[in-house]
Specification:
alpha+beta, 360 residues, 21 strands, three-stranded antiparallel sheet, nine-stranded mixed sheet
Length: 360
């Protein structure tokens, strides 16, 4: 008995030709189909919130087309800087340009109500033109007249500004004991004159000569203002070390030893005879410091060991660094003039007042 006889029939047997029965046409043959299952309903999803309406593009953006806004920001148009065709500037800047006071003083006076523009009390930050009439109250002028400017012959060992590294600031020398007895001014020293007394420019600790200290913002702006081109004259004692042999120092490092400039100093070397003329020309124009070209300078021999420098700028330790670039070592530096004011016969370590008839 075959194994197939024990299997249960899978379904109704289909007659075949081999069974001897008549064959059925293909169309009448039974067709087996899978039962259709009912599909499970998909879970309900919440409806998405409505998109907010797009706001119109700001006026500072460039619209490329229709609803597309290009992400390219345009530079806003500058605020109006002219009135009636005349350019405007801040009131404090205009007052400083007119020589009335410094910008800081101008702000103080405006805050006190001591300034009028075209007859109206000024406000802080007000814009004005060259045609506007600026008036300053006599009270402010009175305060300004009481402010002093002092000329000091600074000795070696004093710093010009704030105390640093244990060194004394030059303002400590301003007292009755060091006041030059031949001072032609009629001013008399009083402690309030030290209030707000500030140096106008730098004079290194190992340099001597004329140092200006003032309470007057107008004087400070003349000497060290951002647009100032006032001349400063120096006598510089040098030793030639040949190009490339000078050891450049960090701008903040002071030279050693500290030497004074005195006409009685012995002459050891005729520097002028050995120093190349082309390097002298480079001192006059062609050097750079801190990555910036220096302004033209006047540099000439005062005597075989001493150069005369006239500068219109004041970078930190400028003359010493300029000399190092051409193989010179500075062994003494003395400032003898600022603008039209000279050191004259003022003794070292003493001071005098700027006379009313003196102008920088």
């Amino acid at each position: 008995m075959s194994s197939s006889a024990s299997r249960p029939p899978a379904g109704p047997a289909a007659p075949t030709a081999d069974a001897g029965g008549p064959s059925l046409p293909a169309a009448s043959r039974p067709v087996l189909r899978r039962p259709t299952l009912a599909a499970k309903p998909a879970p309900a999803r919440p409806a998405p919130p409505p998109r907010p309406a797009r706001s119109p593009a700001p006026s500072t953006y460039r619209v490329a087309s229709g609803a597309f806004v290009a992400p390219v920001r345009q530079v806003p148009a500058p605020a109006a800087t002219s009135v009636g065709g005349l350019p405007t500037s801040r009131l404090n800047k205009r007052m400083a340009e007119l020589g009335l006071c410094s910008r800081r003083e101008a702000d103080d006076w405006v805050e006190q109500g001591w300034v009028k523009v075209n007859g109206v009390v000024a406000t802080m930050g007000q814009q004005v033109t060259a045609a506007d009439r600026i008036e300053v109250d006599k009270i402010a002028q009175g305060f300004q007249e009481q402010r002093v400017t002092i000329l000091l012959n600074k000795p070696i060992g004093y710093v010009s500004g704030q105390a640093e590294d244990g060194h004394t600031p030059a303002v400590a020398l301003i007292n009755p004991r060091t006041h030059w007895r031949d001072d032609p001014s009629r001013n008399r020293f009083s402690p309030p004159q030290l209030r707000g007394l500030a140096p106008c420019g730098r004079l290194d600790i190992d340099s001597v000569g004329l140092l200006v200290l003032t309470q007057d913002g107008r004087v400070a702006r003349q000497i060290i203002g951002e647009d100032s081109e006032m001349e400063k004259e120096y006598l510089v004692r040098v030793v030639y070390q040949a190009a490339g042999q000078a050891v450049a120092r960090h701008p903040g490092e002071r030279s050693a030893p500290l030497l004074t400039i005195d006409e009685r100093d012995p002459v050891s070397t005729n520097v002028q005879a050995v120093f190349p003329k082309e390097l002298l020309e480079r001192l006059r124009h062609g050097l750079s410091l801190d990555g910036e070209p220096l302004k033209p300078a006047k540099v000439d021999w005062q005597n075989p060991e001493q150069l005369r420098f006239v500068l219109t700028e004041g970078k930190k330790r400028q003359i010493r660094r300029m000399c190092e670039l051409v193989g010179l070592k500075v062994v003494g530096l003395k400032r003898i003039r600022i603008g039209r004011v000279t050191l004259g016969n003022l003794p070292v370590g003493q001071w005098r007042y700027l006379s009313p008839n003196e102008r920088f």
